[in-house]
Design goal:
By secondary structure, the protein is α/β, with parallel strands linked by helices. The protein contains 21 helices and 17 strands.
Length: 516
Amino acid sequence: MEHPIRERVEDLQKRRELAMQPGSERSVARQHDRGKMLARERVEYLLDEGSFHELDMLARHRAGDALAEHPYGDGVITGWGTVDGRKVFIFSQDFTVFGGALGEVFAEKIHKLMDLALKVGAPVIGLNDGAGARIQEGAVSLASYGGIFYRNVKASGVTPQISVIMGPCAGGSVYSPVMTDFVFMVDETSYMFITGPDVVKQVTGEEVSQLDLGGARVHTGISGVAQFISADDRAALDDVRYLLSFLPSNNLDEAPFEATEDPADRRCEELYDLIPASANQPYDMRDVVRIVADDGEFFEYASAWAGSIICGFTRIGGHTVGVVGNNPAMYAGVLDSESSSKAARFVRTCDAFNIPLVTFVDVPGFLPGVAQEHGGIIRHGAKLLYAYCEATVPRISVITRKAYGGAYVVMDSKSIGSDLTFAWPSAELAVMGASGAVEIVHRRAMAEAANPEALRAELIEEYEETFLNPWEATDRGYVDDVIDPAETRIKLIAGLEILRSKREELPHRKHGNMPL
């Protein structure tokens, strides 16, 4: 007679085999026909081979007759594994089971996963491909979403949270991804919106497709809801792995160190020719970052949105660094409402996870105009100012060219807490550009002059010689050193090394009141 335990093990294996199966053949075919991977395929592709440990594989819903089927797993795969040997927690919604819709058990599995990740201090990666709340479970499914949102906030700034939108994400389900630290979307096959095209047409009369309403290009290029867009599922998961290589596992850990053969004493002589001779000519700040960084590496954040500022991760001397920089290639590098919000979010993310900040400054000011003022540029600009002021990580700023007015102050100036501020000889620290300053200061003199244009040209030249340079700021200590641009990498590595032991505490309080 066979031992009872062996019989139970055989039963367990059968149940596990059933749990490993996706939904119907028709549903599987539809996923593959659209170029989408299945939920389990995504998990296996993202994680190191053989590292996945599944939780609640045999859990089933308790909705009774409301749902005739009781599949194992209830439409979501949850568990932990490793990426490049580092532990992560993951859930993957299965669109082939109930359309990936969330019910009570589905949510309980995610709740358990998020609680465990917070206890052990590891990132949570959510692969979203579901139709929102499960209608058949009514208020239970809505309350279940609330439990996820609550945990998103508890984990915010403690463990990295990454959302990957790989299909539909609609209604209340959009709020969890947007509260996570990073949102990836897959082009052409993913979308996010609170109300779909049918409701939009009913309420406003507008006809719009799902992708035009909330597709990847919309949210990475217009709304700023998502930061990364990928061509397909595999590319998105590859990008998630790459992002994780820059991040610590939690807010108490340091970001991973990656040794490089790029010399710490490498001079960056290419920078001499990068800055145009005329201060009004553009250049791309990304080029500055790549020249200075280890091996030219730069993983840009929200690259398609708010292009007048760049943000992203790189390594300098083997250590992860968050980079913020005005980009003169777009609108001369001005700060506007969107670029201020984008940079503020990125600065706060870096600060939460102990990632030093390097800021490259070339800013002519805030974007003027009725639309900007009515759109709250004062409030949005204050977000970036607030984010820098509260950041306690090592902070180094490099002024490459223009540093005008209040925008200069906002871009991590010495007066708001930058630990080290360097300037190139081409730096121009002033209240405003020469032309505008002369028009204001010498308006009466030019109005009374016999030859106003000649006087104007003379006054502009005088202003440029007096103010459009780094010397007065250096005299007063607002700039710590004027450096040879070719020495930028050397100075950054030395500065980051000396600041590695920086310790700074904010006043004890419940929380600040950021101008949201």
